[in-house]
Amino acid sequence: MSGQFPIWLDQSPRVIFEAKSYISRSEAAIERAQKNQSNSDIPGQRWYAVPRVGDGGQMPTMREYLDEQARKRGDTEVVDPRSRQSLSSLLGPVLSEEI
């Protein structure tokens, strides 16, 4: 892969890429920790993100995510992710909106 995409897409003159951004909450937590700790660096110390649910409930599932994306697109039928349909075909419309 070249960057975030397979090389056949990345190197194709037919493919046009558009830069978009999003806020990574896990990266933001790491950046805050690094900034707060910058004055007392510890050799070899690495920061990592640990997910948790703010209200103490259950972690979101892939199903919930797919349902929410389908709702945003206005889809009336949501495909069961356990079916034989590939994940890329389920996420394809979602990914194409964000690329």
Output the number of helix runs. Answer: 4
Structural class: mainly alpha
The percent of residues in helical segments reads: 40-55%
Rounded to the nearest angstrom, the radius of gyration is: 19 Å
Q: Stretches where pLDDT falls below 50 for ≥5 residues?
A: none
Biggest β-sheet description: none
Order of helices and strands: HHHH
State the shape: flat
Into which percentage range does the β-strand content fall? under 5%
Q: Report the span from N to C terminus.
A: 16 Å
Determine the mean pLDDT: 75
How many β-strand runs?
0
What's the SSE blueprint?
Layout: H1 7-10, H2 25-37, H3 62-73, H4 87-98
How does this model look, in words?
With 99 residues, the protein is mainly α. 41% of the residues lie in helices and 0% in strands. It is built from 4 helices and no strands.
